[in-house]
Amino acid sequence: MGECADRYVELVRARTLTGALSMSTAEVYARDVTTFVQLVGEEVVLDDLTGEEVDAVLLAFARKPDGRRRSQPEAASGALQSASSQARFRRSVSALFKHAVLVGWVQVNPMAMATVTARERGGLRPERRALTREQAQGLIGAARDLGGGPQGVAAKESAAGSGRRRRRDQNTELRDGLIVLMLSTMGPRVSELVRANVEDFYTNDGVRYWRIFGKGGKTRDVPLPGDVALVLEAYLARGRIASPDKALLLSWRGRRLARGDVQAVIDRVQRGVDPDRRRSVTPHGLRHTTATHLLADAVDMDAVRRVLGHSDLATLGRYRDELPGELEVAMRSHPLLRGPAVRGAGASGSVSAEGVQRSGPAASA
Predict the structure, then answer these.
(1) Residue 113 and residue 56: Cα distance in Å, rounded?
(2) Is 202 a catalytic residue?
(3) 306 an active-site residue?
(4) Is residue 287 flagged as an active site residue?
(5) Burial of residue 244, with CB atoms counted within 10 A of its CB: 0-12 exposed, 13-18 middle, 19 or more buried
(6) Is 189 tagged catalytic?
(7) Of 89, 173, 197, 356, which is most buried, counting CB atoms within 10 Å of its CB?
(8) Which of 189, 288, 293, 338 is labelled catalytic?
């Protein structure tokens, strides 16, 4: 294995000289092949590997701690490989064996007998993309504080009383709170968020709307939740710095915020969340959070589709993550088990026989 891997990596890197591969792609291939050799063993004969052994290596990689996340809180609990990293690793291993067949290093490609597919391994990701209700509410609470909540006001008064003068790039509380609130409750793509202009927001019959310019030149008008609309008005009134740029979200230098800056904003707001309710999340993870909780609360699927900007209802399946305890809640409030006596209870759940008896005439009414 060690000798074959060294020769293959040399070949991959040589392809960068002809422009067939970029340097970054070649290094990814080299890193994955090196990891594969470490998991298999350098002295193992390449042609001896079976499909079952390749499956075992793929699953071992899926559970291997991700060294890139050492600086993140999950490292303490052993953050594992993401679904995309697992799929990429499988592609790298497949490319290795494809080359091995061409040059005669192996007689039979074991990848043809491997049963662990990218789709199945994607289900092995160690954590859901969507935040739980408690985690999402903690993040939204921290964003509300930055957007003018009581804790945010107290923090500002404390800083002012201490005589400390804040740098210009620290005066971004309203903007940061607005970004997290919009991502958490409306689920836009990060590209749609940073592309938004002030003129894209309008009021109709007392309701504040955001005209979102999405993928493929499609637009959709999404109403803002009341709390988000209030923070937006506060940001436009006193949080957005004066700038000729028409962008809604500006850096402290007065330039349109970049996509890469949004993750830093989320991480900064996360510092105000209780550690017990805190979990790192990406902008796309907040998009999953919006879809998951709207659907879990029985919001019409077509309405959720329009909020997210999907053209097909089937796409929602990729954004619907499993929530802990949701099956138990669904069975407790089963619609076919609600008798006439509990019709008034609505969707809040079933009522026991003892509860009906205690209700007396009110229940029969």
Answers:
(1) 12
(2) no
(3) no
(4) yes
(5) exposed
(6) yes
(7) 89
(8) 189
